[in-house]
Every structure is written in structure tokens, then in C-alpha cells.
Design brief:
Blueprint lengths: L37 E3 L12 H27 L3 E3 L2 E3 L12 E6 L11 E2 L21 E3 L5 E3 L5 E5 L7 E3 L1 E4 L10 E9 L6 E9 L15 E6 L11 E6 L12 E6 L2 E2 L4 E3 L9 E8 L2 E6 L2 E7 L13 E9 L1 H4 L11 E12 L18
Parallel strand pairs: 1-15, 6-9
Antiparallel strand pairs: 2-3, 4-22, 5-10, 7-8, 8-22, 10-21, 11-18, 11-22, 12-13, 12-21, 13-14, 14-17, 15-20, 16-17, 18-19, 19-20
Length: 381
């Protein structure tokens, strides 16, 4: 069957202040560029096959180290299995915080049951079909976010943001937006991390990112954009973009003035400066990978499996230069549109799912987390 080419029209109530970005390959797309950027050699770069005894010996040693690392990961995952002690569930151990970011502020391991709606909304913060905080898509995408079989909790723990086959109008899909907020404009240091596995179907567009909540919780008209930091966008349009490419970076709307002062300082070797992506030596749909962001205003660093991918300057502020409100954490599975759907969507490959093993946020001890008040708790089934 040929890929499904249906495009859904933009609703009449599409909010004028919602993000509508220019994407790679479209006229007007730009990045800060690579001038003055330091290129960082990966910790474990791809190598050609060994051709000498010395190279073979080194390769064997490297493989043994990899096996040991995988065994460590197996042991870690095994330790996370909930153990019953006296009839009550015991929380699995928490990994130590990275470096000098002191305490774990937020964690969801997505245990069995129903998505914890004290922690997550399932629609965007912008005004949508059911009022403020209920927008069910962005840009020109072809999914609509819903709550029926779109947030599946795996029997081994973990969340599946599930996109179902086309229903005659759109692809029903899943997303989450954190209710706890993180004040990036404060100057304190935060570290965001998610362990995820990408879907691979033609037309999928999973993402892990940050955006600002409302300046005043009672005034939804102050929800503006940018700022936005994208730790991960995996786009599979089957030709120009594949599930081996990690798109990441920050969003600037006013490039003439660049109020966020966006610039790059370091990139991983092989980072594409024209389109802001790293072509990984693996496929993000084959296994789980840890995507992370360290942010201390205005400096940011994006990581994949502990390896620096991109770092630089990005101020968490509005286009007028004033500090933006605290950030919300988002994970979503978009479908189609002019970027991911450039060559159609393979409806026969659905359902497709962005698998999320956990989400964690570290920050300063004693940090209080304000709660977003913009949204609606839909019934999840």
C-alpha cells in the first residue's frame, strides 16, 4: 500500500500565538552557524574494521568494555524492578545526580496503571478546542493528541506515547506536558534527562523539549513563544531525515535582533551546522538512549548517552528580552506535516510509539516547583 498522503486542514481556532516554526529544508530556516565553534571528538567514534593484530586486540578490548557497560545497565534495570517488602511497594533506587547538580527534583518512572495526572497534562498550553491549555497539535502536523490508547504504561514500567492508524480525519497520538515548572530564568542550574526509544515508521516525529508556561498563571494571553529548547527531535520522512539523525537546538523567532543571544560554542564531531543535527552511528529506533540537557542561564549543553552533542548560549527570555516564565517538560509523538510528512506517512506501519523509560530533573536543593494551572485533565483510557 502506498504511503498515506492525507493532510488535515488547520482548524479555524488555530491560535495566533502558538509556535509555527520554519523547518529544515524550508525557505527561511537558519542556525547560528559553525564560526568559532569547537568540535569535540566523540568518546567512542566509529572505526573501520580491524586489519592488523594490534587493531584486532584493541577492538576486542573495546567490545569487552562495552559488554561490561551493558551488564551494568542490566543490573541497574533489574534493581529498578519494584520489590514487595511487607506487602508494600518499595521505590527503586535513584541514580546519583549528575556532577554538581545537587538533588533530584522530579522523577517519573511510569509504573503500571494510569498516567499520573498530578504530574502531566496531555495537551499543549495554548488555547485549543476545549479552552486554554487544550491545543491538540502544532504547526501543520497531521496528528491530533487524544487520550484513548495513546498513553500506554508498559507491563515492565515505562510509557508508550502511542499513535494509532488514521481514523479518517487524523492520526490519534499521545503527548505529555509537565505540571511542575522549572525556573530557568533564575540563574540556577538544572539538568533534564529522559531515556527514550524512537518509533521508526515513515512520517513520525517524536520530540523531547522545553517551552515556557504562562507569565501569569491566571492570564493565558501571556503564553508566548519562544523560548524553546529542543533536546531531541527524530524525524523520519524516509529521505532527507531518518531515525539515525538527532535534531537538537534552540528556537529564535527574531533573528534580526536575536534576543535570546543564541550561539554555539561546542559540537560533537560530524554535527551538521546547516540543519542542526547529529548523524549518529546507530539508529534511535533500535534501542533506548538517554537524552539530556544541562542549563544554567544562559548556557546550555545537550547530551546523548553522556556525550556532548551541542553546547552554547541561549537566554531563557521573551523576544522583548524580559525573563520568560518557568519551563515545562514536553514529550510528544507528532505525525506528518511539511517536515516529517514530506514524502507521506505509511499508515500500514501504525500504531507507532515513542517509548519513554523515565523522565528526571535535577536542580538546587530547596527548590520549589510551581505548578502550571493552564490545562484540563482528560479521562485517559
Amino acid at each position: 500500500m502506498a504511503p498515506h498522503q492525507l493532510k488535515t486542514p488547520k482548524p479555524a481556532n488555530y491560535p495566533r500565538n502558538a509556535p509555527h516554526r520554519v523547518f529544515p529544508g524550508e525557505r527561511g530556516y537558519r542556525t547560528p552557524g559553525m564560526a568559532g565553534v569547537t568540535v569535540v571528538t566523540p568518546a567512542a567514534p566509529m572505526k573501520k574494521p580491524p586489519t592488523t593484530d594490534q587493531e584486532l586486540t584493541a577492538r576486542v578490548a573495546a567490545l569487552e568494555a562495552t559488554v561490561a557497560q551493558q551488564q551494568t545497565e542490566i543490573n541497574d534495570l533489574t534493581s529498578r524492578v519494584t520489590v514487595l517488602e511487607g506487602g508494600a511497594p518499595v521505590e527503586p533506587p535513584i541514580d546519583p545526580p549528575p556532577d554538581d547538580v545537587s538533588v533530584l527534583l522530579f522523577e517519573d518512572l511510569f509504573p503500571q496503571g494510569v498516567l499520573d495526572q498530578s504530574r502531566w497534562f496531555t495537551r499543549y498550553v495554548f488555547t485549543g478546542p476545549d479552552g486554554p491549555g487544550t491545543l491538540d497539535y502544532l504547526n501543520d502536523e497531521w496528528e491530533r493528541y487524544r487520550e484513548s490508547q495513546n498513553h500506554l504504561l508498559d507491563t515492565n514500567n515505562g510509557l508508550r506515547l502511542n499513535a494509532l492508524p488514521h481514523n479518517g480525519e487524523f492520526w490519534p497520538s499521545g503527548m505529555i506536558r509537565s505540571k511542575p515548572l522549572f525556573d530557568l530564568a533564575s540563574g540556577e542550574e538544572f539538568y533534564f534527562e529522559a531515556r527514550v526509544k524512537s518509533p521508526r515508521g515513515l512520517g513520525v516525529w517524536p520530540a523531547f523539549w522545553l517551552a515556557a508556561d504562562a507569565r501569569q498563571p491566571s492570564d493565558v494571553n501571556t503564553v508566548r513563544w519562544p523560548p524553546e529548547i529542543d533536546m531531541m527531535e527524530i524525524v523520519n520522512n524516509g529521505q532527507d531525515d531518518t531515525t539515525a539523525m538527532l535534531h537538537c537546538g534552540c528556537i529564535v523567532h527574531d533573528w534580526q535582533n536575536n534576543p535570546q543571544k543564541y550561539e554555539w560554542k561546542q559540537t560533537i564531531e560530524g554535527f551538521n551546522g546547516d540543519w542542526s543535527y547529529w548523524y549518529a552511528p546507530f539508529d534511535f529506533a533500535d534501542d533506548f538512549h538517554v537524552i539530556a540537557l544541562r542549563y544554567k542561564r544562559p548556557e546550555f549543553t545537550i547530551y546523548c548517552d553522556g556525550q556532548l552533542i551541542l553546547s552554547g548560549i541561549y537566554d531563557w527570555c521573551w523576544d522583548d528580552g524580559s525573563p520568560a516564565p518557568p519551563a515545562q517538560v514536553l514529550l510528544n509523538l507528532a505525525i506528518g506535516g511539511s517536515w516529517a510528512g514530506r514524502y507521506g506517512c505509511d499508515n500500514d506501519a501504525f500504531p507507532q510509539a515513542l517509548e519513554v523509560d523515565y523522565v528526571r530533573v535535577w536542580g538546587p536543593a530547596g527548590t520549589s516547583l510551581p505548578q502550571s494551572q493552564i490545562g484540563k485533565d482528560y479521562e485517559i483510557s
